[in-house]
Design goal:
The protein has 347 residues and is mainly β. The chain has three domains: 129 residues, Roll (Ubiquitin-like (UB roll)), CATH 3.10.20; 96 residues, Ubiquitin-like (UB roll) (Roll), CATH 3.10.20; 67 residues, Roll (SH3 type barrels), CATH 2.30.30. The chain is built from four helices and 16 strands.
């Protein structure tokens, strides 16, 4: 199994990215002269547990989950909490949601920065998010994301990142009957084979976070879904297994050796139809006990009954093959039984 508990750094996207400004100007990481505690850019990626989401401050047209801020915008004291609050503010996320968001110092971090009072370095040329190739990460809750305010700053003419070839996790999709079409398929001759971008998987990088990403991509519910390291595996992977996307040796890194996700279909449970409400009124036009007719209600002239108005056929006394037309109804005492057509009328 290609998993490990060690923390590995993600490979740089490209050294060329730093020479392009995401808003169209040159030199996005200026080498400022003077004191070491200089204002700098802080780069970050934005996620929910289901995967990457677009940053309102994205700096490249083909990689919209990465954004940046100037560190002077974060109120002192510089802590995990103050940075989370500012990032949530500019990303249209609620301040209440900031408390439930997690901040990671890198994509490869296996634990969020805690507690919120932890001091962080935002000045000078090093520290959290100081490199576009090693950004900080904010993971917010799905509920917070769903309530996200709209973006009013529409940026145009952003450059593309000069990245190396995008790295993917390849996987095949099955239900309990066999292979099915993946929603991320890329080969018209092999529809069960799908893939997701490694950068779309939220930290901490575990089988659980990869599973969330695949469930989102395939629009599956979380119940009865299993993830296997490859098609020949005998048992599913453990949710707590750590994934290291370092180099090209990780589960699903090769198209010809994909992982496998099995979605077991759940039986469709249909609820019985709700009984029609007894809201229609019928009134007896004669008096009779019908004591020798099982399940018939005794009636008195003028007595009102409630029924659903659905006509049925009902037998008289036991052994009599003849059936009478009428209605199931309830009397004022709540007793339910049959009232014949010939002995009642709607009112």
């Amino acid at each position: 199994m290609h998993t490990t508990s060690s923390v590995a750094q993600e490979p740089p996207t490209s050294p060329h990215v730093a020479s392009l400004d995401g808003r169209g100007s040159e030199d996005i990481s200026p080498q400022r002269k003077g004191p070491a505690k200089a204002i700098r850019y802080l780069y970050y990626r934005l996620y929910t547990k289901d995967g990457a989401i677009e940053s309102y401050n994205h700096i490249c047209s083909n990689d919209r989950s990465i954004g940046r801020i100037l560190t002077k915008a974060v109120a002192p004291p510089h802590t995990v909490s103050s940075l989370k609050r500012y990032l949530c503010k500019i990303e249209g996320l609620s301040q209440a949601g900031a408390e439930n968001s997690d901040l990671y110092d890198t994509l490869s971090s296996q634990s969020a920065m805690m507690p919120d009072s932890t001091r962080i370095s935002l000045l000078g040329h090093s520290g959290i998010g100081s490199s576009v190739d090693d950004p900080a990460v904010l993971v917010t809750g799905n509920e917070n994301f769903e309530k996200r305010a709209g973006n009013t700053d529409v940026s145009k003419d952003l450059p593309e990142t000069h990245t190396k070839d995008t790295r993917h996790v390849y996987y095949r999709v099955y239900d309990d009957m066999g292979e099915i079409t993946s929603k991320t398929h890329f080969d018209k001759d092999d529809l069960s084979l799908g893939r997701v971008d490694v950068l779309s998987i939220a930290p901490p990088r575990t089988i659980s976070s990869l599973m969330f990403r695949l469930l989102k991509a395939e629009d599956f519910l979380g119940d009865d879904v299993q993830l296997f390291e490859d098609m020949g595996s005998d048992s599913p992977m453990d949710d707590t297994d750590v994934l290291t996307f370092l180099g090209d040796d990780y589960p699903g890194s090769i198209e010809d050796q994909p992982m496998a996700i099995v979605h077991k279909k759940r039986a469709v449970i249909t609820s019985p139809p709700k009984p029609t409400a007894f809201i229609k009124k019928i009134k007896a036009n004669k008096t009779h006990s019908f004591g020798y007719y099982p399940n018939w209600l005794p009636i008195s002239t003028g007595e009102v009954f409630f029924t659903d108005g659905i006509a049925i056929q009902h037998r008289g006394f036991l052994g009599d093959p003849h059936c009478f037309t009428g209605y199931m109804a309830t009397n004022s005492a709540g007793r339910k039984g049959f009232v014949a057509n010939f002995a009642s009328e709607f009112c």
